[in-house]
């Protein structure tokens, strides 16, 4: 790493836990407080719906008001939200579903999507996700974050700086997201108007990484770090760095998903042979992405380094 300090790296402590949730903590939402509307798409073992959340009186903050569409009605608010509904056939993983909601409810960052709570209706569990314009990744097409014209090195570094500042904050706490990709970066403000900038938030990771089958992990290639395909126990902050590098490539190549034409077995061989994904034309950005996509987890740069290098790539 380029730094004024000499940095030494220690071997990973296999006995160290990434996160120890001793109890679940989230706001419980009553079923009469939500209205489920149009079906928007599917996640991993979940269905995504448009919805409305009714809140009492003065709930919410001033910061939320800038991004959340609200409507006053007899001292209450109606908030446009996205509902993530656990498929009833997967009720056996409900605990893992609740663990993710609990974690997201306890972690706060300006560029992290806010989970309002969980509604339990019979065999269905629905965490409330933050209001957003209908994201294009929920329909055939590309993620909404990538609609900005001609995404080049300047655009990529500008957009990616925002979630990277989140990872920089979480890295010090040894917290892991586990599902970083362009379709999970939600566009709260487009920033297409003159003098404005885009504002993005990273969505929740979905169901717990620990319950993913091997087939589901292979399906996440090339976003999932190679060491995590072999063993879910290898999930660490270094895995988010690999995923972030792949997400940068998505932005650079105008949402052209890497390896999208490959079969699952071909994807696995890609990792086994330690092959490299295509590089963008900007040499500095390509070098940074290559560091994030290092097959040795310990050689990937810290998010502090990534954030610094992305800042240097900003157009002046």
TrEMBL record:
<keyword id="KW-0418">Kinase</keyword>
<feature type="compositionally biased region" description="Basic and acidic residues">
    <location>
        <begin position="123"/>
        <end position="139"/>
    </location>
</feature>
<protein>
    <submittedName>
        <fullName>TYK2 kinase</fullName>
    </submittedName>
</protein>
<keyword id="KW-0808">Transferase</keyword>
<dbReference type="GO" id="GO:0030154">
    <property type="term" value="P:cell differentiation"/>
</dbReference>
<dbReference type="Pfam" id="PF07714">
    <property type="entry name" value="PK_Tyr_Ser-Thr"/>
</dbReference>
<dbReference type="GO" id="GO:0005524">
    <property type="term" value="F:ATP binding"/>
</dbReference>
<feature type="region of interest" description="Disordered">
    <location>
        <begin position="122"/>
        <end position="142"/>
    </location>
</feature>
<dbReference type="InterPro" id="IPR001245">
    <property type="entry name" value="Ser-Thr/Tyr_kinase_cat_dom"/>
</dbReference>
<dbReference type="InterPro" id="IPR051286">
    <property type="entry name" value="JAK"/>
</dbReference>
<dbReference type="GO" id="GO:0004715">
    <property type="term" value="F:non-membrane spanning protein tyrosine kinase activity"/>
</dbReference>
<dbReference type="InterPro" id="IPR000719">
    <property type="entry name" value="Prot_kinase_dom"/>
</dbReference>
<dbReference type="GO" id="GO:0060397">
    <property type="term" value="P:growth hormone receptor signaling pathway via JAK-STAT"/>
</dbReference>
<dbReference type="InterPro" id="IPR011009">
    <property type="entry name" value="Kinase-like_dom_sf"/>
</dbReference>
<feature type="domain" description="Protein kinase">
    <location>
        <begin position="34"/>
        <end position="316"/>
    </location>
</feature>
<dbReference type="GO" id="GO:0019221">
    <property type="term" value="P:cytokine-mediated signaling pathway"/>
</dbReference>
<dbReference type="GO" id="GO:0005131">
    <property type="term" value="F:growth hormone receptor binding"/>
</dbReference>
<dbReference type="GO" id="GO:0035556">
    <property type="term" value="P:intracellular signal transduction"/>
</dbReference>
<dbReference type="GO" id="GO:0005829">
    <property type="term" value="C:cytosol"/>
</dbReference>
């Amino acid at each position: 790493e380029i730094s004024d300090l000499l940095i030494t790296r220690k071997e990973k402590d296999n006995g160290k836990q990434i996160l120890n949730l001793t109890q679940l903590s989230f706001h419980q939402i009553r079923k009469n407080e939500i209205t489920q509307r149009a079906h928007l798409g599917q996640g991993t073992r979940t269905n995504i719906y448009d919805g409305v959340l009714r809140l009492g009186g003065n709930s919410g903050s001033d910061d939320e008001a800038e991004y959340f569409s609200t409507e006053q009605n007899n001292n209450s608010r109606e908030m446009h939200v996205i509902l993530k509904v656990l498929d009833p056939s997967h009720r056996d993983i409900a605990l893992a579903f609740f663990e993710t909601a609990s974690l997201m409810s306890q972690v706060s960052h300006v560029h992290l999507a806010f989970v309002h709570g969980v509604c339990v209706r019979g065999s269905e569990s629905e965490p409330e996700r933050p209001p957003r314009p209908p994201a294009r990744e929920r329909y055939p097409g590309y993620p909404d974050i990538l609609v900005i014209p001609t995404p080049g090195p300047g655009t990529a570094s500008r957009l990616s700086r925002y979630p990277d500042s989140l990872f920089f904050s979480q890295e010090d706490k040894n917290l892991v997201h586990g599902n970083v990709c362009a379709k999970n970066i939600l566009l709260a403000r487009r920033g297409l108007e003159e003098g404005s900038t885009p504002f993005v938030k990273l969505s929740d990771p979905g169901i717990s990484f620990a319950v993913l089958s091997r087939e589901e992990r292979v399906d996440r290639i090339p976003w999932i770090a190679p060491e995590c395909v072999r063993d879910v126990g290898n999930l660490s902050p270094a895995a988010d760095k690999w995923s972030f590098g792949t997400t940068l490539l998505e932005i650079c190549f105008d949402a052209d998903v890497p390896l999208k034409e490959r079969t699952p077995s071909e994807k696995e061989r890609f990792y086994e042979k330690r092959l490299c994904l295509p590089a963008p034309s900007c040499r500095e950005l390509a070098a940074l992405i290559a560091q994030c996509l290092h097959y040795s987890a310990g050689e990937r740069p810290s998010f502090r380094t990534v954030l610094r290098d992305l800042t240097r790539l900003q157009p002046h």
